[in-house]
């Protein structure tokens, strides 16, 4: 059907007779978006529904599939300490990472906004780590953190600090992951910089005339003006924290003593290590519910953070 | 004056922090195996051991992994350029029933965490017999990707409709307008999507991790991760291969910097 209809929609191109083409013209737009519709059904909606169904079953990869109702969800909450532990680790990571990331990125963006020379160079430097693979990032940081020969503890020793054995210390391994993630998120600086650049200069000039100091200007103008960007990034970063998987797999393997056992890794292990597909699907759906709630908050507050560039032209009419 | 000094001081300080791990990788890659065990660490190796790169690369079938990575990267990029642009054109240039709803769905799919579809996708591809082949990594790209559709649609909206109409009067059909007028004018968007897709695919770890078991199918990221797990591997070799694998994304970034930096900031805010 697919190929046939592509042919029929091509024909009208040859003869310009708009009236007769109504029926075919009706189909044309759907043919253009057909790839997405098929892909959406096959690789998104279908799997999602399937996963929802699986979450109500005991579903090993090989063997009998049995309906268990809500048991997977009930067990998760009442009978699985690892669920709570990995959830708490994920939240702890987000609580450490998100404010630090926002603070550093906003600070660097403000510094870049001082009309410094070579700002192109600095922007490149901050963006650079986010270009390489998460695997490469993990390899580099595993060596940087090395307990005996790592450069990190050497640099700390220069300022008189004896660093821990980062990746093998239950207290510090999570912090180590926060730092490595911060390194990979320098692109956030550019997002803030764009937000800062959109603040009209006249606001600052008016404030200066009224006798406002730098601190006042920051809290009364800069912060409110970039707050939409902050909120947006805040939610996005929390969401991505819940999907933190490759760094945990590669840098610490969830250890030591599961101190960096993230929620995504917990779901991953249930699926691909213990082959409890039904249970892991329930894990995933719980995570999805959390993300939905967060997304809902974003949309609820979107009036505050959505930023339209002046030249949005026809784009504005739909979205 | 003071403000500028503070700005420069902090920017230079943070630049050092951002660049130090890169430098540490490169300097380790060039050291001898004895030198990496020295304390305090040496910033510059006495002798530059360029042979580390070749030795480490040849110690594993990295050439094979490279071939797999290239296959996936090139084919997915072709797939995305064709499929996402067709879909974007459909959304940007036609008024049809359900368009706004469907476009909302496109945007909504960007929010779906991969973990939710990961398990059923694995079972779906397993059912199709695609596990341990490159197909699960390649085929979906021929059905468009929400983010790229969004980027391209935004770009098409900036192309004046008068061009379409003029072509239509000259007898061109919708597909011809897409192929002859929109696509050539959309070059900046096509480049941007290619760059994003090349970076994303080349760097992808979780997809290959889940869908590939056999070493002969490994991509470079999987090969590198496995290399680290090996018993006798020295940091010099590991950093050498890490550097080689990171080189293409870094070079691509320098080439396409303008596009990426300007656009990623703009897109994220919208």
The CATH superfamily of the largest domain in chain A is MetI-like
CATH superfamily of the largest domain in chain B: MetI-like
Q: Which sequence of SSEs, written as H and E, runs from N to C of chain B?
A: HHHHHHHHHHHHH
Overall 3D geometry of chain A? globular
How much helicity do the residues of chain B have?
A: over 70%
- Strand runs of chain B, count: 0
Main location (chain B): membrane
Membrane topology (chain B): Multi-pass membrane protein
Subcellular location (chain B): Cell membrane
Family (chain B): Belongs to the binding-protein-dependent transport system permease family.
Summary, kept brief:
The complex is a heterodimer of chains A (319) and B (270). With 319 residues, chain A is mostly helical.
Task: Provide the descriptors you would attach to this structure in a database record.
heterodimer, A: 319 residues, mainly alpha, MetI-like fold, 2 domains, 15 helices, 2 strands, B: 270 residues, 13 helices, disordered C terminus
Question: What would you note in describing this structure?
Answer:
The complex is a heterodimer of chains A (319) and B (270). With 319 residues, chain A is an all-alpha fold. Chain A folds into two domains: 2-54, no CATH class; 73-307, MetI-like (MetI-like fold). In chain A, 67% of the residues lie in helices and 1% in strands. Chain A is built from 15 helices and two strands. Chain A has helices at residues 2-10, 22-54, 71-78, 81-112, 119-127, 134-144, 151-158, 173-184, 188-197, 201-209, 214-242, 246-252, 263-272, 277-300, 302-305; strands at residues 57-58, 66-67. Chain A has a two-stranded antiparallel ribbon. The radius of gyration of chain A is 26 Å and the shape is globular. Chain A starts with a helix and ends in a 14-residue tail after the last helix. With 270 residues, chain B is mainly alpha-helical. Chain B has two domains: 1-49, no CATH class; 59-269, MetI-like (MetI-like fold), CATH 1.10.3720. Chain B has 13 helices and no strands. Chain B has helices at residues 2-29, 51-58, 62-93, 99-109, 114-127, 135-138, 146-157, 161-169, 174-185, 187-203, 206-211, 220-229, 235-269. In chain B, helix 2 (51-58) crosses helix 13 (235-269) and helix 3 (62-93) runs antiparallel to helix 10 (187-203). The longest helix of chain B has 35 residues, at 235-269. Chain B is globular, with a radius of gyration of 23 Å. At the A-B interface, helix 2, helix 4, helix 5, helix 6 and helix 7 of A face helix 1, helix 3, helix 4, helix 5 and helix 7 of B.
